[in-house]
Amino acid sequence: MKRTLMTASLGAAFLCATVPAAMAETTAIVGGVVFDGTGAPAARKTIVIRDGRIADVGKDIAVPSNAHVIDVHGMAVTPGLFDLHTHWTVAGDPTDFPSIAAAYLRSGVTTVSDFNEAPEAYAPLRAWLTKLYAPHVNFAARISTPGGHGADWADQNTTRWISSPDSAKAAIDAVVAYHPDLIKIFSDGWRYNRMPDNTSMNEATLAAAVAEAHVKGLKVMTHTLTVERGLIAARAKVDSLAHGLQDRVLTEDEVGVIRESGMGEIPTLSVFDPDKWVHSSDHKVVANSVLFDNALRNVRKLFRAGVIIGVGTDAGMPATPHGLSTLHELELLVRAGLTPAQALMAATHSSAVLIGQDKDRGVIAPGLRADITVFDGRPWETISDIHHVAMTMVDGKPLYGLEAPPADGRPGWPAPMPAAKLVDDFERTDGRSSLDTLRTDTMDRGPDRTVEVSGVMPREAGKGHVLFMTATMAQQKTPYAGVSVPLSTGAILPVDVSAYHGISVEVRGSSCDARMTANGTVGASWSASLPLSAHWQTIRVPFTSLASVDNPHHRVWTGRDITDLEIGLSCAPGTTAWLQADTLKFY
């Protein structure tokens, strides 16, 4: 019933602090042994940073007299690490944006790619991230097939569905308006050999999507796990695979095809590691060691053939925690056959190349961003030293460890915005609410989903417009169709509705289980029944009548952390249901 878009926990309070300015415009890191990510041997060097970028690096350079000096006394200094495949979702570990960001900084990660967000959420999240202690976050626009992986839970604003070259071009053109950092295409419906496969994308459609993305200057990564689909991705000019190939071991000819295409691989070994389930309480998962061994062997073969290997984890998925999984991924790359130095290169320069950011970061060199990690040890010699992070610096600011401000002073959630009385009068015909937020469909999950159509239509007797929704219910135990109206852009930031007593809506529709739901941050929801009939009526839903549903953190209602209101129906499988609504507001 509730949205699955990532929103996050408030904790004890809402904070509105901002990241402080750098301690000094010029900073010098001295005494460190620098592994610069260029392939040069590690050596003791001084790094001078000015205005967030590396001004100079070398053995004998002078430290400017006005520099703030950070002495790392013999520790290892490397470029900041990358994680090119993450999901900042409430189902992950940790669950909320400030905590996820902190987990990456604790692990020395300074750039991540997030594959979870709807394009509507990019702008508010980007603005919020500038006020958090956080790594750089690249947001990926999601594209799949009808019934495909990624389309089995999201609305079409979050994951576009395509099945032809024409629809591929239209989807890319639609998401480009939101300025994504890259495109993720779910081209392979293979579901990890643990659940039924979903639909896959044909080669012509994939190639058209990739070509249009490249015209727009965007890199394309694909969800691909099988050799056959990997070869299709190579022929379609995909930039990198967002998983490892697992169903069998690649032949030498197939390795050659991938190498010649220039496509890289981000194997996400962490999410498939069978060892992590040994002590897990999730007994539903049966790890497959044969598939994992295939993935390891294919990484080794591709790397030795010259294919670029990057680092990604699928963090946010079960038993794949944020931050720690990035470090574990480097250990698994060494297990696959890379040396510790090669694994570290994969997590820095190679990943920067795959995401197209190598001219900006990924090595320690003059002119590049001062994203730097300091380790207590020599991770290019002993990979387990990767766990001993002493400092993480983003844009020249120490955000974790040495010189970083104390944890209790870190900014978190912003103060909630006061709610407007009118949420939506459904007069706009562009799909947006009276609050200028984008309405979304919220049907049930799974490859067999309720078929839902919603929009606005004229109300009888010239009374303006109303919301309409009609749906054919899926063959599920509790099929559902609904429409969500965000209270803030992308339903990301919290809104305070506590000045009101409840929710009012004019509504009519099918006489089955209809509900009004108030969704909150971190996946919390509160719901109450709507007694519908075929005749218009104004129904008031007092906040006191809302009961907690699907609330993993057992949050109590305060009204100060609400993100959207949702109207929906759960009717008998296979039946057709409908509703109309007008004047959704607080009273």
Automatic annotation (TrEMBL):
Q: Which domain of life is it from?
A: Bacteria
Which InterPro entries does this entry report, sorted A to Z?
Amidohydro-rel, Galactose-bd-like_sf, Metal-dep_hydrolase_composite, Metal_Hydrolase, Metallo-dep_Hydrolase
Q: Which UniProt keywords apply?
A: Signal
Q: Does the keyword Hydrolase apply?
A: no
What range(s) does the Amidohydrolase-related domain occupy? Answer: 77-398
Keyword flag Signal? yes
Signal peptide bounds: 1-24
- One Pfam entry for this protein is Amidohydro_1
Q: What is this protein called?
A: Amidohydrolase family protein
